């Protein structure tokens, strides 16, 4: 019977750490034509490492410790990586006040009486503090697939910090498997166009870059007009995007994956389980019909 087939699919999924929110989700997932992925933490490991420090004004230790001070209040993967780096090097991290996040752009706080921002070179450029030389250095590192952030005040850019986040081991196979199923995979990211192109090139996946959080929602809205879209993200920062796609998939490890924000929760933090979700859903519908 239909209810029995659905119940058995739900429990088969659950055995593999794939929680589906009901029969309607199975039906919607089976019809998927496009899978949109968030980049950071979904297609990449989400654990960037500091690779380069470019001082423009002042001293290197000061650059890193002030950047870490600004980032202390933020849970963004870039913030975590900069704090880790400062701690590993053994720097004293200064006290910051009035910290706030600017999603898709950076973070800002008051350090020793000066308002400082750690953000994308593009945002630093919009703020009028990036000269051509600094911009060229940033762009060169971005072309290598690194993400670059600048530390700047409203007057001057103090320097650049480059970070590298590797694609996940299983992302390559998952992207290839989706294509074999006739599904179009696409990466959506707020990262800059050069870094995004380098990572998308490694994974051989279509992509859209420099999307602010609302830009991801708009991009998805466009996709859903023509396609049946599954959106895969971490479910914390991506709730609006997950809600916009026909099927929202939250991927993470264990308890931090909230099924409230998504139609599907992947508990074992494996991109391959996205393919598993679609295969299971298709097989279930085939049994019912
Ligand atoms: P993604 O789509 O890769 O998850 P985000 O939208 O989170 O990217 O961030 C986009 C860009 O905004 C980052 O690449 C970075 O340049 C900048 N940014 C966002 N938050 C921060 C932060 N806390 N510190 C530094 N840069 C940040
Ligand atoms: Mg993100």
From TrEMBL:
Superkingdom, taxonomy of origin: Bacteria
Subcellular location: Cell membrane; Membrane
Family, similarity comment: Belongs to the cation transport ATPase (P-type) (TC 3.A.3) family. Type IB subfamily.
Protein's UniProt name: P-type Zn(2+) transporter
The encoding gene: zntA
Range covered out of full length: 388 to 676 of 733
């Amino acid at each position: 019977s239909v209810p029995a087939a659905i119940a058995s699919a739900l429990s088969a999924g659950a055995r593999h750490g794939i929680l589906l929110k009901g029969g309607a989700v199975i039906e919607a997932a089976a019809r998927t034509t496009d899978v949109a992925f968030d980049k950071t933490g979904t297609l990449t490991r989400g654990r960037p490492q500091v690779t380069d420090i470019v001082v423009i004004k002042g001293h290197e230790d000061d650059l890193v410790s002030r950047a870490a001070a600004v980032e202390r209040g933020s849970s963004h993967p870039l913030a975590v990586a900069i704090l880790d780096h400062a701690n590993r090097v053994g720097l004293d991290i200064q006290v910051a006040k009035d910290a706030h996040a600017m999603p898709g752009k950076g973070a800002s706080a008051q350090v020793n009486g000066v308002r400082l921002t750690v953000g994308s070179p593009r945002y630093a450029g919009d703020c009028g503090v990036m000269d051509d030389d600094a911009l060229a250095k940033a762009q060169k590192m971005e072309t290598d697939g690194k993400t670059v952030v600048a530390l700047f005040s409203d007057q001057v850019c103090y320097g650049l910090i480059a970070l590298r986040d590797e694609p996940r081991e299983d992302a390559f196979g998952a992207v290839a498997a989706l294509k074999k199923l006739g599904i179009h995979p696409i990466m959506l990211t707020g990262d800059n166009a050069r870094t995004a192109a380098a990572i998308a090139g490694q994974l051989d996946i279509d992509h859209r870059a420099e999307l602010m959080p609302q830009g991801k929602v708009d991009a998805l809205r466009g996709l859903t007009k023509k396609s049946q879209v599954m959106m895969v993200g971490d479910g914390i920062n991506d709730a609006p995007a997950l809600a916009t796609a026909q099927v929202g998939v939250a991927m993470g490890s264990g308890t931090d994956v909230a099924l409230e924000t998504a139609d599907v929760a992947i508990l074992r933090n494996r991109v391959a389980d996205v393919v598993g979700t679609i295969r299971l859903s298709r097989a279930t519908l085939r049994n019912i019909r």
